Amino acid sequence: MKNNGEELLLNDNTENKEAKVQKEIFEIDVRLQEIDAILERYEDILYEKEEEILSPEEVENLVIEYRELKRKKKELSKSLKNSKWDVMPLWMAFYAVFQFVFSFYLLQSVICLRFAVWLSELIFKVWVPDLWFFYVLIFLLPFLSLLASLIILLKIKNKEKKKMFAIIYIIHGIETIITVVYLLVKVLA
Q1: Helix, strand or coil for residue 158?
Q2: Which residue in 31, 53, 93, 172 has its CB near the most CB atoms, within 10 A?
Q3: Cα–Cα–Cα angle for 102, 167, 84, nearest 5°?
Q4: Higher pLDDT, 133 or 167
């Protein structure tokens, strides 16, 4: 529950920041339109009646303000653009790297075989099972790894994060299938 509350607060804070930025961009747009209207009116009156309703300093100040507001609006617009990498949580990136390394077939096959030998030595002291049990132990780690990833995938509520983690899960699954095939060939050969 605490994690859900923290995630909701984080989402609310993000939405509040985005709303503030959107409001600021809107205010800048309004001011830009005002300046544009003032300058256009100035140019029209200057062209038609050859009267200056604004001093050259005022015109220059308005042009400078217009450029500043345009630059500020551009910076604020850039801050709103979020790529998928910006949305991806740090824990998910670490988990993906860990699973990609751990699921690499050469590394995982060595770990699985050593784990199976170690666990079977412990179990053989208490009970003497058949050879099939050793094969089950060999494939236990890849299965548990996929199961853990599946549980994490099912627990994620945010749709975008779920899509990202689904991609990680699919790649992890493909790596695990390659590892299982490699282990089958290695063990049965």
Answers
A1: coil
A2: 172
A3: 115
A4: 167
